[in-house]
Write a sequence for this structure.
């Protein structure tokens, strides 16, 4: 069901929405920049979005739910490319100046206007089925690690490995189309620590106190990301007595998991006693975030999520779009974790790290 109610600010943000909160992490321009002339950062990011047009067109062409998909996909590529080229001439065209949120929103808008609702549906369904078949083995491997700290680190590596399945990155979309993705191989190939932002040791220490009563996790992609990365992590929190709220997109965007898809996935992983691999899942809640993009502006979430999150003492924002390109510097009234893999060279350069580096930014709020 799509969320139709008015969107409101996420209640755990500490910065007043009207003054200090900025969703986008990377400043594309500064007040001193000429409003009529694109900045070097704007131009670089417009090119990132231009480079992704062929893979989006390809997905749209193969959408069997849309009549005349081939012609409409061509129209999408033309229209969206024109919008991006317009920004290069005049940053204030199309509601600009552009930032990550606007560039994503315009892409979704053009797709939806042409009748494309979910061009990644087929690949999401395939990847979800594959990941569900591997879920038990991944959980057993984690459960076999007796040391708490080592188990948490293994779960975190699983989140990074799962987060590689991202079809919004032109480079990864190409690799995926050619070779597919192996979750366990990805786990072993995570770049060695220290990562570009690495607060894992502080997080493990905080985890050992087992004092979080409620955690809200903004989830990212379908397939290995949600099923083999986030859900084993969430199950471990449940096992420690934490109530977990998973917040998923209202509408489809790239290969992000949606609220209805997540409900379906959880139903498939639960046994007849309502357990997920021996852990009671009655404390696992699924919320519609109200979002329809691969990035998120926390000044606009669903009222349902705001209500469920109001008493949480841990917020996890996962994925490059939600936790790095937006909200990396967002501050919360409770403990918070931004976790994701860097899949754009421009983000790696901004952070002073490497491509496929990891971000694990943990902020502890003393009670």
């Amino acid at each position: 069901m799509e969320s139709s109610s008015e969107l409101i600010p996420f209640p755990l943000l500490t910065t007043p929405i009207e003054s200090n909160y900025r969703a986008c992490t990377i400043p594309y321009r500064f007040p001193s920049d000429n409003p009529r002339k694109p900045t070097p950062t704007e131009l670089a990011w417009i090119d990132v979005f231009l480079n992704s047009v062929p893979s989006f067109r390809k997905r749209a062409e193969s959408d069997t739910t849309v009549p005349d998909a081939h012609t409409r996909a061509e129209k999408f590529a033309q229209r969206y490319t024109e919008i991006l080229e317009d920004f290069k001439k005049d940053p204030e065209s199309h509601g600009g100046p552009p930032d990550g949120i606007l560039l994503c929103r315009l892409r979704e808008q053009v797709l939806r206007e042409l009748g494309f609702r979910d061009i990644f549906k087929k690949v999401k369904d395939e990847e979800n089925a594959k990941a569900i078949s591997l879920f038990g083995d991944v959980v057993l491997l984690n459960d076999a690690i007796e040391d708490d700290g080592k188990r948490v680190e293994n779960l975190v590596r699983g989140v990074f490995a799962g987060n590689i399945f991202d079809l919004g990155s032109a480079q990864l979309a190409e690799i995926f189309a050619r070779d597919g993705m192996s979750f366990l191989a990805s786990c072993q190939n995570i770049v060695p620590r220290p990562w570009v932002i690495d607060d894992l040791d502080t997080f493990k220490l905080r985890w050992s106190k087992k004092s979080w009563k409620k955690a809200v996790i903004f989830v990212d992609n379908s397939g290995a990301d949600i099923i083999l990365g986030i859900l084993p992590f969430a199950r471990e929190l449940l096992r420690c007595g934490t109530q977990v709220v998973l917040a998923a997109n209202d509408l489809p965007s790239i290969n992000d998991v949606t609220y209805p898809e997540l409900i379906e996935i959880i139903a498939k992983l639960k046994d007849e006693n309502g357990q997920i691999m021996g852990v009671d899942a009655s404390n696992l809640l699924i919320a519609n975030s109200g979002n329809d993009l691969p990035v998120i502006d926390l000044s606009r979430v669903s009222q349902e999520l705001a209500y469920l999150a109001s008493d949480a003492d841990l917020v996890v924002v996962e994925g490059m779009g939600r936790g790095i390109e937006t909200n990396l510097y967002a501050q919360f009234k409770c403990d918070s974790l931004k976790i994701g893999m860097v899949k754009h060279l421009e983000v790696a350069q901004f952070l002073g790290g490497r491509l496929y580096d990891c971000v694990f930014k943990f902020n502890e709020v003393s009670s």
Q: What stands out?
A: The longest helix spans residues 121-143. The chain has two domains: 40-113, 121-363. Residues 40-113 form a domain with the AF1104-like fold (CATH 1.20.1700.10).
